[in-house]
Amino acid sequence: MSYFATILYDVDTLDTLVMFIVCMPNGELERTYTTDVSSAGKNDGKARFRFTNTMKFRLLGEKDYRVKVIVFKDDMDESYRKKLIFFEDIHSKQSINDN
What we know:
By secondary structure, the protein is α+β, with helices and mostly antiparallel strands. Helix content is 24%, strand content 29%. The strands form two sheets. A three-stranded antiparallel β-sheet has the order 1-2-5. It has a two-stranded antiparallel ribbon with strand order 3-4. The longest helix is centred in the last third of the chain and has 14 residues, at 85-98.
């Protein structure tokens, strides 16, 4: 499995808004995920991970996301929050399950 760590930040203040880890299914799961894992990238000849088609673990009943949100800044600007609602939702569910 491959993992991607991502940090999203406020372009004006450089405050970290969201920090998360995503795991990408490996080649052994090709029958399950078929062509949903990768797509053409921005650069010619480069592939890119297509997270939106593989957000959940298919073999685990699709209840768990492939994302672990490590940081979600609660007091971020509302314009960012609207765009990051997906991560806020996951973070709140993970916080409940962690307790």
